[in-house]
Specification:
Helix content: under 10%
Family: Belongs to the plant dirigent protein family.
Subunit structure: Homodimer.
InterPro entries: Allene_oxi_cyc_Dirigent, Dirigent
Number of strands: 6
Strand order of the largest sheet: 1-2-3-4-5-6
Keywords: Apoplast, Secreted
Subcellular location: Secreted, Extracellular space, Apoplast
Number of domains: 1
Shape: globular
Strand content: over 45%
Length: about 100
């Protein structure tokens, strides 16, 4: 969750680009790189269109590495805070993954 005392399990890395002329939306690729003891060095990758003003957005999990090799599934994003001027945001991602 967005609480300051939430347990850190890794970090997000990625990029985005504008994806729509009519709606505030991005094309986004994101990698979740884990550094906790159980999944250290493993990663998950998501890719998709992100209509950021929607309450809940869904993205496919397109792959992974390490423990998450051959991963598939989806991620749901919910924005808790977004500052249009600065671009700062707090977004929660719930990721549902099947892996071998």
């Amino acid at each position: 969750g967005p609480e300051r005392n939430s347990t850190r399990v890794g970090r997000a890395q990625g990029m985005y680009a504008s994806a729509d002329f009519k709606e505030f939306s991005f094309m986004m690729v994101q990698n979740y790189v884990f550094d906790d003891e159980r999944f250290n060095g493993s990663s998950l990758s998501i890719l998709g269109r992100n209509p950021i003003l929607s309450a809940v957005r869904e993205f496919p999990v397109v792959g992974g590495s390490g423990v998450f090799r051959f991963a598939s599934g989806y991620a749901e994003a919910r924005t808790y805070f977004f500052n249009v001027t600065s671009g700062d945001a707090i977004v929660e991602y719930d990721v549902y993954v099947l892996h071998y």
